């Protein structure tokens, strides 16, 4: 027992100053906030200026080292939407997979291009044939019992329509893969934006829940004082207590929803879920909405979906050419330099020179293959027709998305003024109802209804701001501004 205690004391003494013992966590995760008491501070005011924005370009890897999964959580990170988008690209499986697919397509193009150039190979061969007393041995086709081949072989396809079509198809495939990288980046933008503003809304709902709890606490205090003064019935106190308890539960739910929203966003941005961070609330009603014609023009010009569909159509067209090229002959040239002799030497018996060269030209003429080439041509033409259908549908879908997203942004922006007015009216209604209650002209039920209406008006206004902001992000994503 004494030995164990002494070992523990020695181990603790070796710890550097400021380092926690193994039994204590060095950086515990933030715990969910419990019910706030009356007078708790609320969230940031809406008019506060957001943090400076960073640029984000689809298809460009964020600068700086990427933190590893084993990195310890650091200090809280203040995030803007642009910073969140850059961080998310380092961990998005779909985006990284699209980048790898683009690199694979590039290597396919390099290999298809290399097929145009001659190849050089070293051919080394030794053949042993069982002897039978003759110079050639048992197998008459061989040149002797011992055959040595040491040759440099140059192989070139001087004319091949298939090779040329395959190279052009590889170029179109690489362009389509590059466009899909940007498509994946834009899909990531939509996901991150949704989760980012889910955290912002959760923060606002938490602040609203705290304000509502404060108002319920003040009304409970009013009813208790009036009951002691004989000006209110005990039923009013009970109603105020019920309202206060409901607001406590609302705050608990708001805290829980905020933690879940932070987890959903954090898993996209950081290697550790314990990394603390704060998001910048940039919800404002005065964000401008660009004209529809400008958005449509930029979206049609910068759409990666259209580029991918057009490249796929080109790829299918070159596929038809490659299939039809099988009808044409091909010319292959082979050049051999070295020796093919019965002795491993450049000088043979009787001082004969073994070292030499040979040129071989081959013309392959397709004659008959039971309709296989014709079937491949039909198959390629069907793929080309499908690519044309896909391009047409992509154009129509892009037009529909532009109109739908713009209508959504217009509707959200048009409702902001009405939602703000409703919030002001609900705030004034609660103030007047409380005054009327204190004057004996209103009931506790009317005050509770006014409080509930105010809670709904606050949340509805914040939801309207987020709806408008997300609609703008979707439009900016279509135009390539993110």
Keywords:
disordered N terminus, about 475 residues, alpha+beta, four-stranded antiparallel sheet, 2 domains, Outer membrane efflux proteins (OEP), two-stranded parallel ribbon
CATH domain class of the largest domain: Mainly Alpha
Mean pLDDT: 83
Largest sheet: 4 strands, antiparallel
At the fourth level of CATH, the homologous superfamily of the largest domain is: Outer membrane efflux proteins (OEP)
CATH architecture tag of the largest domain? Up-down Bundle
Query: Strand order across the biggest sheet?
Result: 2-3-5-6
Query: Which radius of gyration do the C-alpha atoms yield?
Result: 38 Å
Give helix and strand order, one letter per element, not per position: HEHHEEHHEHHEEHH
The 3D shape can be described as elongated
Please give the share of residues in helix: 55-70%
What would you call the structural class?
alpha+beta
- Beta-strand residue percentage: 5-15%
What does this structure look like?
The protein has 482 residues and is of the alpha+beta class. The protein folds into 2 domains: 81-117 and 161-327 and 374-482, Outer membrane efflux proteins (OEP), CATH 1.20.1600; 120-159 and 329-365, Outer membrane efflux proteins (OEP), CATH 2.20.200. It has helices at 2-14, 81-89, 93-114, 161-228, 234-269, 292-302, 304-324, 372-438, 444-479, and strands at 77-79, 119-128, 146-159, 277-279, 330-341, 356-364. A 4-stranded antiparallel β-sheet has the order 2-3-5-6, with no helix packed on it. A two-stranded parallel sheet has the order 1-4. The radius of gyration is 38 Å and the shape is elongated.
């Amino acid at each position: 027992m004494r030995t164990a205690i002494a070992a523990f004391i020695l181990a603790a003494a070796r710890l550097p100053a400021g380092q926690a013992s193994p039994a204590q966590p060095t950086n515990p995760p933030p715990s969910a906030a419990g019910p706030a008491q009356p007078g708790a501070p609320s969230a940031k005011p809406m008019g506060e200026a957001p943090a400076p924005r960073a640029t984000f370009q689809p298809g460009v890897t964020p600068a700086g080292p990427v933190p590893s999964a084993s990195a310890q959580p650091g200090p809280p990170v203040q995030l803007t939407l642009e910073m969140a988008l850059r961080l998310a690209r380092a961990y998005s499986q779909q985006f990284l997979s699209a980048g790898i697919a683009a690199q694979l397509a590039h290597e396919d193009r390099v290999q298809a291009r290399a097929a145009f150039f001659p190849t050089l190979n070293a051919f080394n061969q030794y053949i042993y044939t069982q002897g039978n007393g003759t110079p050639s041995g048992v197998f008459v086709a061989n040149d002797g019992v011992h055959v040595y081949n040491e040759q440099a072989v140059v192989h070139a396809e001087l004319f091949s329509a298939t090779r040329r079509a395959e190279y052009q198809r590889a170029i179109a495939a690489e362009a389509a893969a590059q466009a899909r990288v940007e498509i994946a980046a834009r899909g990531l933008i939509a996901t991150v934006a949704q989760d980012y503003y889910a955290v912002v809304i959760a923060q606002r709902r938490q602040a609203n829940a705290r304000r509502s709890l404060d108002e319920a606490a003040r009304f409970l205090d009013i009813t208790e004082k009036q009951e002691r003064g004989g000006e209110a019935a005990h039923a009013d106190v009970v109603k105020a207590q019920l309202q206060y308890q409901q607001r406590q539960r609302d705050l608990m739910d708001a805290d829980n929803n905020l933690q879940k929203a932070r987890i959903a966003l954090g898993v996209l941005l950081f290697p550790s879920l314990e990394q603390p961070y704060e998001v910048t609330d940039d919800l404002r009603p005065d964000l401008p909405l660009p004209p529809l014609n400008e958005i449509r023009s930029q979206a049609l010009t910068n759409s990666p979906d259209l580029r991918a569909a057009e490249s796929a159509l080109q790829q299918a067209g070159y596929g038809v050419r490659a299939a039809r090229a099988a009808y044409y002959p091909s010319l292959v040239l082979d050049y051999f330099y070295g020796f093919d002799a019965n002795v491993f030497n450049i000088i043979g018996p009787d001082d004969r020179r073994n070292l030499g060269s040979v040129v071989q030209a081959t013309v392959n003429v397709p004659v008959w293959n039971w309709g296989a080439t014709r079937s491949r041509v039909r198959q390629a033409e069907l793929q080309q027709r499908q690519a044309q259908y896909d391009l047409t549908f992509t154009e129509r879908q892009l037009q529909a998305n532009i109109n739908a997203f713009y209508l959504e942004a217009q509707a959200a922006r048009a409702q902001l003024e009405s939602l703000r007015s409703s919030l002001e009216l609900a705030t004034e209604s609660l103030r007047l109802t409380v005054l009327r209650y204190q004057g004996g002209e209103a009931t506790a039920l009317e005050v509770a209804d006014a409080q509930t209406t105010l809670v709904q008006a606050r949340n509805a206004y914040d939801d309207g701001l987020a709806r408008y902001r997300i609609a703008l992000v979707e439009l900016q994503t279509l135009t390539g501004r993110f």
